[in-house]
Automatic annotation (TrEMBL):
Residue intervals passing through the bilayer: 121-145, 327-346, 353-374, 406-425, 466-484, 490-513
Segments of skewed composition (Basic and acidic residues): 43-58, 68-84
Keyword Transmembrane: yes
UniProt-recorded name of the protein: Putative integral membrane protein
Compositional bias segments (type: Pro residues): 1-14
Keywords, in A-Z order: Membrane, Transmembrane, Transmembrane helix
Residue segments, region Disordered: 1-104
């Protein structure tokens, strides 16, 4: 360089030197991008920096965007404040789109409104199903009882067989048969024949005339003899066997009575239900002939009937019974399906189960009250001259006893279901019961473990899967009741006790686990005293 040339201006400071003598280039421009460039991006033709590739939804990749304007103190602006108070570019909406605070608030409001409408729709559907269940519960029980009694001969015989052993019914049958047998014995003809025989034998006229006075004593004697024979027949095993056999053969007549058919042993005539006892009369006639009453064989043998009850609503009852007979096969299934769907559809399953069970229990109470009211109406409608009150009461109670037993069984099942649903809830009493049960089973399990009987892995599995095991046990008990042939209240109580016993045993086994060991070999905190989740 010539001495008269001016010196060059100083260039930019290369910065401090590195330990190896090379100048420090400054801060790290960042990782290399996929296109080979570094830092904030490639320089565009207009001199601006490329912010980076776009996302599929059109927004820029925040990892390659400009971090934002600097604050007055030199720090970067983190962006607008989020609704939760944190800083950032804003919450994400559907499809990962970044929303502003106002957009996010609108989105949450619409989402909550949609959830409320959805819950209201579910509650509406569940309420309709609950109403259908309650309305069908009483007809379903009556329909099942009617179909079972009509279609099953053994069931029908089991229903009417006890009537043959009821003293009130035996007394009515004895009185009616005695009256009809004596009414067919011509006592006047007997006394006249006796007087004629005496006259032919040369008896004094005074003696012949006094034979007419024998009508009363002779009729009383015949009545006593006939009553004694009839009573022996009616109270014997022969009558009970004849009764059962006659009812078994007349079962088709019961079907006809329920459907309005007027043929058979049990028939509907006008506004009355009558029972044909012709078979019994034939047996009595034969016994009388065997005892020396030859004229008993001449007793007419029309269809002898006993009026069971009379009502002016018989035709309406027959229409209802025919409908129930047709619906008896599927109406109970439909009712059970509606109840299950109501519980499943409702957002609060446990509460809907509680309400459904309580509603069914109330319906069964109404049915029991209705049976008592119908019994009173039936007894008042039967005149004492047709059937004594005690006999009418026995007949009614015998015919509806299976219906009453089924109603009581369903009432107990509904109450137990409602109680179980409540005990699984957040109520104060429910929590206290669960705590006491957990303390009891836990203490028993720890005592079992202290005695050296520990359940190990099986106990831990039971403790971890407590909800599953509880559901399986309760489901097994419910299935047993469904498959049981005509369960009674005693059967329901037995099944519930077995379920509670199995649950208690499983809880004790789940608590009888060895204490868990810490990594250093010592006992872990809590030493086997585990608390079930939930």
């Amino acid at each position: 360089m010539a001495p008269d040339e001016p010196p060059l201006p100083p260039g930019p400071d290369p910065g401090p030197e590195r330990p190896d003598g090379t100048p420090d280039p400054g801060p790290d421009p960042g990782p290399e991008r996929s296109d080979g460039s570094q830092g904030p991006g490639l320089e565009r033709s207009d001199g601006s920096q490329d912010p980076g590739p776009e996302r599929p939804d059109g927004s820029q990749d925040p990892g390659s965007q400009d971090p934002g304007p600097e604050r007055s103190d030199g720090s970067q602006d983190p962006g607008p404040e989020r609704p939760d108070g944190s800083q950032g570019p804003g919450p994400e909406g559907p499809a990962g789109k970044v929303l502003s605070a106002e957009e996010h608030a609108d989105y949450e409001r619409y989402r909550r409104a949609g959830a409320v409408r959805h819950r209201r729709a579910r509650y509406g559907v569940a309420s309709v199903l609950l109403l259908v269940t309650l309305l069908l519960s009483i007809p379903a029980v009556i329909a099942a009882w009617t179909a079972d009694t009509v279609s099953d001969t053994d069931r029908y015989v089991a229903t009417v067989a006890p009537l043959a052993s009821e003293p009130a019914v035996q007394a009515v049958v004895t009185d009616r048969l005695t009256e009809r047998v004596v009414a067919n014995v011509d006592v006047d003809a007997v006394t006249k024949a006796l007087g004629k025989a005496l006259a032919d034998a040369g008896a004094p006229p005074a003696v012949v005339d006094r034979t007419e006075a024998l009508n009363g004593p002779l009729k009383a004697a015949v009545t006593n003899v006939v009553r004694d024979i009839v009573h022996r027949v009616v109270t014997s095993d022969v009558f009970r066997e004849t009764w059962v056999d006659a009812n078994r053969r007349a079962h088709s007549a019961v079907v006809g009575m329920l459907t309005g058919d007027r043929s058979g042993a049990v028939r509907a005539e006008g506004d009355s239900i009558k029972l044909d006892v012709g078979t019994v009369i034939d047996t009595v006639k034969q016994r009388l002939v065997d005892r020396g009453f030859d004229k008993a064989s001449a007793i007419p043998a029309p269809d002898q009937q006993i009026t069971l009850f009379r009502t002016d609503k018989l035709s309406e009852a027959q229409d209802a019974l025919r409908l129930l007979d047709v619906m008896g096969a599927w109406l109970p299934v439909l009712t059970l399906a509606c109840a299950a769907l109501a519980v499943w559809t409702a957002p609060a399953h446990r509460m809907m189960l509680l309400v459904t069970a309580a509603g069914v229990a109330v319906a069964m109470i109404v049915l029991l009250v209705g049976l008592a009211v119908v019994r009173r109406v039936y007894l008042d409608s039967v005149p004492a001259s047709v059937l004594p009150t005690d006999a009418a009461a026995v007949i009614y109670d015998t015919f509806v006893r299976f219906l009453r037993d089924s109603t009581r069984t369903l009432l107990v099942v509904a109450l137990i279901t409602a109680l179980a649903a409540y005990l699984y809830g957040p109520g104060r009493v429910a929590r206290w019961v669960r705590r006491q049960a957990a303390r009891g089973t836990g203490a028993a399990g720890r005592a079992l473990g202290d005695a050296g009987l520990r359940t190990g892995t099986a106990g831990r599995w039971l403790d971890t899967h407590g909800s599953w095991t509880t559901g399986i046990v309760i489901g097994g008990g419910s299935l047993a009741l469904l498959l049981w042939n005509r369960p009674t209240v005693g059967v329901v109580v037995l099944v519930v006790c077995l379920v509670l016993l199995v649950l208690a045993v499983l809880a004790v086994l789940a608590a009888a686990v060895p204490p868990r060991t810490a990594p250093d070999g010592g006992a872990a905190a809590g030493g086997g005293d585990f608390t079930r989740p939930g």
